[in-house]
Design goal:
- The chain has about 475 residues and is an alpha/beta fold.
- It has four domains: about 130 residues, 3-Layer(aba) Sandwich (Rossmann fold); about 170 residues, 3-Layer(aba) Sandwich (Rossmann fold); about 80 residues, Orthogonal Bundle (Helicase, Ruva Protein, domain 3); about 55 residues, Arc Repressor Mutant, subunit A.
- It is built from 18 helices and 16 strands.
- It has a five-stranded parallel beta sheet, sandwiched between helices. It has a five-stranded parallel beta sheet with strand order 9-10-13-8-14, covered by helices on one side. A two-stranded antiparallel ribbon has the order 6-7.
- Helix 10 packs across helix 12 and helix 16 crosses helix 17.
Length: about 475
């Protein structure tokens, strides 16, 4: 990314053409743009770039086949993020696809729609300026946009990156907290990969998906003859992961009787296989994760307090996506590139109104929901940019975050002067009112109440509310 500034505040567009007549005719159609336009030949363009510091380059050629890799490569070597627009007389689709795969921002053929071309140039320059600002900010603040497979520049994510890098160097037990879809498994994997244990095994176990008897067997293994059908010794995860890391996802769903055995293992780092009498000592790091409030589960006697404190040595709290909206453009472009490559599509960017819709939405399903939305748009459409109509139906609405006003509390339930209603009654009423105002839409009601969708489902079940 080049950070050279021009001598004035005007944006600079370089038009590199095969002949002057072609450049002159096109230049007239761009007279409405408030920018400095510089013309040059294709041969001299590479010398113009460092002198003019453009924010966009337009290549005018009769036949796009003349644009070999060396011309575009020269631009990319100067600045990999500099947008390139190609204008030609050719309508050959294979050539357009070839240029798009080489990094061309947009392709136009004659006759030119002047208004559409001007809009494309303006959007390209705006994207370039934004990319440059992010680049400068990262260098000034020492930000890391990516850690392992996680992406973000928001303060909460930057703080989390620092915590992961610090705790990865140690052997401390880690408890990852966050709503579904926020990326808890990615945090666990990053912690392992950045640790001295990275050369050894990382084994993940979903405690909520395995029955209690099988989970104990999966963790600690069994001896031959331990139970009917156990015709051979089985080595469990704790033994197989010796020297490495075990990730216990949905730890809150673990059966209380197994919580006792896990507590003992955390204290002593040794265990016995099911049906065995030999104590086996291992060196394993434990990382656990949950989307529930474990402190509340402890107070409700649904989770062992001593195990909670054993797990909660270093807690990493993942913020929901609605609280880090500045990261949405970065994440969306990452997923767009990922699924365009995977599905052999040529999507390069988002239309401004599509990106605005993505940022405005609250994403109750968090990053997982955003990723699914981008993948669906890429799979179902063929284009170079994601348009708003390609996004899920809920993002087609004018405002996906419009507040819903709940009806006033009935007079019969209002407290008398000097008295206070129980919190559970107030909470139940608030949930019922939100569901009524949102016509039973749980996702929308959760956004209005500013709580996670999973939390709302649990409270609906807790209070016996009919949603």
């Amino acid at each position: 990314m080049r950070t050279t500034l021009t001598k004035n505040n005007n944006s600079v567009l370089i038009i590199a053409a095969e002949n002057k007549a072609l450049a002159s005719s096109l230049r007239k159609s761009l007279s409405g743009l408030k920018m400095d336009i510089r013309s040059t030949s294709l041969e001299s363009m590479s010398n113009k770039l460092p002198v003019e510091s453009p924010e966009c380059v337009m290549l005018l050629v009769e036949d796009p086949k003349k644009l070999d890799g060396s011309i575009l490569e020269g631009i990319k070597q100067y600045d990999d993020n500099l947008p390139v627009i190609v204008v030609s007389h050719s309508k050959e689709v294979p050539e357009v696809v070839r240029l798009m795969k080489m990094g061309v921002y947009e392709y136009f053929h004659f006759p030119i729609d002047g208004a559409r071309l001007q809009m494309s140039i303006a959007n390209a320059m705006r994207l370039y300026k934004l990319t440059k600002r992010v680049f400068l900010l990262e260098n000034q603040l020492g930000l890391t946009t990516k850690l392992d497979e996680m992406i973000g520049t928001s303060p909460s994510i930057q703080s989390m990156f620092q915590t992961i890098q610090n705790v990865a160097k140690t052997n401390s037990t880690v408890l990852i907290l966050g709503e579904s879809g926020t990326g808890k498994e990615l945090v666990a994997k990053a912690t392992h990969r950045l640790s001295p244990r990275s050369g050894r095994r990382f084994i993940d176990i979903n405690c909520g998906a395995i029955p209690r008897e099988l989970l104990e067997n999966e963790l600690f293994g069994h001896e031959r003859g331990a139970y009917t059908g156990a015709d051979r010794r089985y080595i469990g995860c704790c033994e197989r992961a010796d020297g490495g890391t075990i990730f216990l996802d949905e730890i809150s769903e673990m059966d209380p009787s197994l919580q006792v055995k896990l507590l003992r293992f955390l204290q002593e780092r040794q265990f016995m296989r099911v049906g065995g009498n030999e104590s086996i000592k291992v060196d394993v790091r434990i990382i656990a994760a949950t989307n529930r409030d474990l402190a509340q589960a402890v107070s409700q006697n649904k989770f062992r307090e001593d195990l909670y404190y054993r797990l909660n040595v270093v807690a990493i709290q993942l913020p929901p996506l609605r609280e880090r909206k500045e990261d949405i453009p970065l994440l969306a472009k990452h997923f767009l590139e990922k699924y365009s490559h995977k599905n052999e599509k040529i999507f390069l960017d988002f239309m401004p109104d599509a990106m605005e819709a993505l940022v405005a939405y609250d994403w109750p399903g968090n990053i997982r929901e955003l990723e699914n939305a981008i993948e669906r748009a890429v799979v179902l459409h063929n284009d170079t940019k994601i348009k708003r109509q390609y996004l899920p139906q809920i993002l087609q609405q004018p405002s996906t975050t419009a507040p819903v006003t709940a009806p006033p509390m009935p007079a019969t339930e209002k407290p008398e002067q000097g008295k206070v209603l129980p919190l559970t009654l107030v909470e139940r009423y608030a949930i019922e009112a939100a569901l009524k105002a949102c016509t039973g839409n749980v996702a929308q009601a959760a956004r209005c109440l500013k709580i996670g969708q999973a939390t709302l489902y649990r409270k609906i079940k807790q209070y016996g509310i009919r949603a």
